Here is the input.
Amino acid sequence: MCACSEKPRGSNPPGAGRVIGTGGPGPGSGSGGRLALARLQAAQAPLLWAAALSLALAGREPFASWLYHFAWWPLLICLDGLLTLKGEPSLIWDRPREGLRLLGWSVTVWLVFEAFNLYLLNWRYADLEPRLTVRWCGYLLAFATVLPGIVLTARLLLARGWWSGAKGSPRRLRAWQPLSLMLGAACVVLPLLSPTYAFPLLWLGFIFLLDPLVDLLTGDSLLGRWLAGERREVYALLTAGLLLGFWWEFWNYPSLSRWIYTLPVLNFGKIFEMPVLGYLGFAPFALECAVMYSFLTALDRQVLDTPGRRTLAWMVQVLFWAVMFAAIDRVTVASFR
Here is the structure.
């Protein structure tokens, strides 16, 4: 029997649809040794960034070609340490299973957008590693950073008190879920029907398409909380998206292996490789990623509630990864070194 039928909405814990809410202190997070380790996690990042950027600009490998990885993995370790110092649980030390799951789901989520880009071709990859095995490992490690970067940044903003006073007036909107589903479906389909002008809608579509399903599975959702007057989570995610958008583009620009944009319109006023108006898309993209993560989390708890189902789900995802990696090589990659 499907887990959905066994677990009514009221049986979910409070905040079941949240992915960036505070989770309370992790085991041992207040100990001297753990705090020292967290400080080390936070301190390593600036040193590694300075060294990697200097060596990349000097043309030294692997830094010149793999600069993205030297920017993002130290960032994730740093964010995890800073959260520990704020009394939050660590995804590395306290909740490693959740951390690994987040990395894997990040690959899946980003590859959904890569699948759309096979048709839209809004971005291409240039001067990539020619060896297939090494290149595919690079895809895996790069795409695994997307969700953790957004989730951890938003959690840190909340832990540091950002938007602490943000509230709105509750609004009663009955049956918002069908309206949201229809809007989400339109945002996902229209870019395929009119790719020249409707392509930006893709960066909104999954918010409206999946959030009603999260609400159905958990009784708690991002849009539902917004209608209830809660604002902090949305604002934290929007801020995280803008900050990380700049971070993505800053480190992409000097890298030998990089992405380039091939938008049909609005391709002007570039800051690094990104056209200036494109930066506006990073904010809703963070919301979209949070909703997709909430959906996968709810699906894991409510439907994939046995080891066999979870194993099958991961096997399907890994197969999807392989198919998409091959498709990216064939369609999205503009050149190899």
